[in-house]
Write a structure and sequence with these properties.
With 247 residues, the protein is mainly alpha-helical. Helix content is 68%, strand content 0%.
Length: 247
């Protein structure tokens, strides 16, 4: 049986962008509520607390990939990403800036970092992402980062909507997002060029597309869990964060 014709690089990029247009979590009902000012303070706290686990695991994900990268160029790129999230010891990285966000929302930092209030679905989804990057091919691992193609739009909506609609949110609280407006396009330029160059066979291109669908799905399912636990029907599982029970 003859293998299907490979996509051109332009076709591959178009198909990647079509996945985001259909599946990126900017379309999730929870995000519409978050950006539209329709959540209460406790629900926003729940989002920030659970998202912290995703942010905190990004450096572990990138470090596992760094160990497998075959060239200095690729390793330098992923070392930069580690610094972006972990900081350099002088300038705070994304993880620290996210903790400033949870601080600004009135959450106790020790409680957030303890992960005691985490939704089980958040833990399972994020752990699946770390495992995916650690175990799949380098090509698939890099491709899974391409949700960053779509992040500037969601960041713009999030920041403007939350500042406009919540009196308990300030520009300082949301300072995490400002560097991402320049970091994300840089990340995308490198990763997109890599997958377009390295995915030459149709089977490899299909793996790239599947990796991006997987990443979109795990971002979506985290919001499914938040919506079920804190919006409708509003049933946090045992042990999970409850706004009235924050220490």
């Amino acid at each position: 049986m003859t293998e299907a014709r490979p996509f051109s690089t332009e076709e591959l990029e178009d198909r990647l962008r079509a996945i985001g247009a259909e599946r990126y979590h900017i379309h999730h009902p929870f995000h519409h509520l978050l950006h539209g000012g329709q959540l209460n303070r406790g629900q926003v706290q729940a989002w920030a607390l659970n998202r912290y686990y995703y942010q905190a695991c990004i450096p572990a994900k990138d470090a596992s990939l760094l160990a497998r990268l075959p060239t200095p160029e690729l390793r330098r790129e992923w070392r930069r990403r580690l610094v972006d999230h972990d900081g350099d010891g002088v300038h705070p990285g994304g993880v620290e800036r996210w903790l400033r966000l949870t601080d600004g929302l009135g959450l106790d930092r020790d409680y957030v970092t303890s992960l005691r209030g985490l939704l089980p679905a958040t833990r399972f989804a994020v752990d699946a992402y770390v495992r995916f990057v650690r175990e799949r091919s380098v090509l698939e691992a890099v491709a899974s980062s391409l949700t960053e193609m779509f992040s500037p739009n969601i960041i713009s909506e999030r920041v403007s909507g939350m500042l406009r609609n919540y009196d308990f949110v300030t520009a300082e609280t949301l300072a995490y997002f400002t560097p991402r407006l320049s970091q994300a396009p840089q990340d995308v330029a490198f990763a997109l060029d890599y997958v377009k160059r390295e995915a030459r066979m149709r089977a490899e291109q299909e793996q790239v597309l599947a990796a991006l669908r997987f990443k979109c799905d795990l971002l979506w399912v985290q919001l499914d869990a938040l919506h079920f636990a804190y919006v409708a029907p509003g049933l946090p599982p045992p042990g999970a964060f409850r706004p009235e029970a924050v220490p």
